[in-house]
Write a structure and sequence with these properties.
mainly beta; 5-stranded mixed sheet; Immunoglobulin-like; Methylamine Dehydrogenase, Chain H
């Protein structure tokens, strides 16, 4: 969802001393975007003087868009374990406050006012925990889980969902699911017809599940994907009244620990039937989808994966964002890391989109870093990451490298950008050649000094790098000591100059050498 108009420069927002409470592990999963600030919601542990766990604490923080802490508050929940299960479990209430629906021992629906102060809570003791929340007329739709009487395990559950009023009192509630399988709804989105699309997983989340209900809670249809393999849960999003977008992870086999999975992005019709597969990624290690947001025709998918095949559950993990356009296809994919320890678990759960004054889309993501190699405040801590319209967490820079790969006559030189791997590179060389290839090979007839310029479009502007390099060893003897004849004068775009010109130009001599000037007379 795009809210407000906010300036977001590409930079990391991370202050461990602020984002971590009492040197205890802290998990974050939700961001709420405001006009001039944003809010994070996380959970940490409560210990007594004897270091015995007494429960958990909800931590609420407000930050400005430079990442500085403006306000903080917390709520202790004694004798209970709370887990911010996945993204979008917190929403902004109509009065500017916040409603928190998180998975815990007795499902709590908790209301804070706009100053991050506690107002009220409701508990639903027959419910395992709450997994998602969405606005409904005069209240909210919440989803959770109840005990599946025929399930094989104690934690097998059916889907529970309820319409509640503005104070969390139940108006109507429903139980739905397979009789012997563990079903769970993790994401809820309103549809244009007044109903909702619910998505999650079946059979311990291994089969991606999508359920459509009407405005009063009646199930209209459901669809599952996959088989008993270790697939990942799915996330659904309505495109219009008759089309739904569905993203999920499809497993290669039934490896119980670290299955190879690929991202599937598909379109479904008004009855949940598959109409088109938009995208299928390569297989990734232990890949799972955590969030999905849409802005116009652009689809942003937040995911998590092992960086390489591992057998250790504490192994290095990373998060990433994939951008897909409904017209042009895959736009880009970015990967994000924690401290780059070989035992980092860097998990981003929530992705939010924001407008910038340049009419571009910026990104904020929240999650946590779990570093098994350290102790104390770095053990596990909330992490918020800001990225620009192309998903870069820091301002991109171009850096040119050249390598002689052909010593013939003419000789070939390979050019590469060893800086940020941006898209749509444009190369210009002072011998008159231009290229839009990622790594162009350019042939030179003569040894000598040449100028090069590399540019790339970036979020409404152009970034560039300019360098001078020397070609030698292409099989032609240098002629630096001989008399030179000026054969061409060209501007920075490679156009030949045949008139008076003010600006940066390049003189090219017959021995291959060049001279850069800033004013042609």
């Amino acid at each position: 969802m795009v809210l407000g108009s906010i300036t977001l420069n590409a930079q990391e927002y991370y202050h461990n001393e602020i984002y971590n409470q009492n040197l205890s592990g802290e998990i974050c999963s939700d961001i709420i975007i405001g006009d001039e600030s944003y809010f994070t919601f996380s959970v940490t542990y409560i210990y007594d003087v004897n270091n015995i766990n007494q429960g958990e604490m909800i931590v609420l923080r407000e930050f400005d868009y430079s990442g500085e802490l403006l306000k903080a508050d917390s709520l202790a929940v004694n004798g209970c374990s709370i887990y911010p299960h996945l993204a979008d479990n917190v929403i902004r209430a109509n009065d500017g406050g916040f409603i928190v629906a998180w998975h815990d021992c007795n499902a709590h629906l908790i209301k804070f006012n706009s100053n991050l102060e506690f107002e009220w809570e409701q508990q639903y003791e027959h419910v395992f925990g709450l997994h998602s929340i969405a606005k409904h007329k005069n209240g909210y739709l919440i989803t959770g889980g109840v005990k599946n009487q025929l399930g094989e395990d104690d934690d097998d559950e059916d889907i529970w969902y309820a319409f509640v009023d503005s104070l969390g009192n139940i108006n109507s509630e429903f139980i739905y699911g397979d009789e012997i399988k563990n079903d769970r709804i993790l994401f809820t989105e309103a549809t244009n017809d007044g109903g909702y699309i619910l998505s999650g997983g079946r059979y311990h989340n291994w089969n991606p599940l999508i359920v459509k209900i009407d405005s009063v809670g009646n199930v209209e249809w459901e669809q599952t994907f996959g088989n008993n393999y270790q697939h990942g849960h799915g996330i659904a999003y309505p495109i219009n009244d008759s089309t739904y977008l569905f993203a999920y992870a499809k497993a290669l086999d039934d490896d119980l620990f670290y299955p190879l999975r690929k991202l599937k992005l598909v379109l479904l019709n008004s009855n949940g039937g598959l109409t088109e597969e938009l995208y299928s990624s390569e297989f990734k290690n232990d890949f799972i989808v955590y969030d999905l947001e849409i802005a116009g025709d652009d689809i942003y998918i937040l995911f998590h994966q092992h960086s390489e095949a591992v057998s250790d559950p504490t192994g290095f993990r990373e998060s990433g964002v994939l951008k897909y356009n409904l017209t042009t296809g895959l736009e880009w994919e970015r990967i994000y890391h924690g401290n780059l320890s070989n035992q980092d678990r860097f998990t981003l759960y929530d992705l939010e989109l924001i407008d910038t004054p340049e009419n571009e889309i910026g990104i904020l993501m929240a999650g946590d870093l779990f570093d098994y190699t350290t102790i104390g405040s770095l053990l596990q801590c909330t992490w918020v990451l800001g990225a620009d319209c192309q998903g870069y967490p820091v301002y991109p820079e171009l850096n040119i490298s050249s390598e002689l790969i052909d010593e013939g006559s003419p000789g070939g030189v390979l050019f590469e950008n060893i800086g940020t791997q941006v898209n749509d590179l444009n190369w210009w060389f002072s011998n008159g050649d231009m290229s839009s290839e990622i790594s162009p090979q350019i042939n030179f007839d003569n040894n000598g000094a040449y100028a090069i310029e590399l540019t790339a479009p970036y979020c409404g502007e152009t970034i560039s790098a300019i360098d001078t390099f020397y070609v030698e060893g292409i099989g032609i003897e240098e002629l630096l000591s001989t008399r030179k004849t000026l054969v061409r004068t060209i501007d920075v775009l490679g156009r030949e100059i045949s008139r008076d010109y003010t600006g940066q130009v390049i003189d090219v001599f017959d021995d291959g050498t060049v001279r850069k000037r800033f004013k042609y007379e």
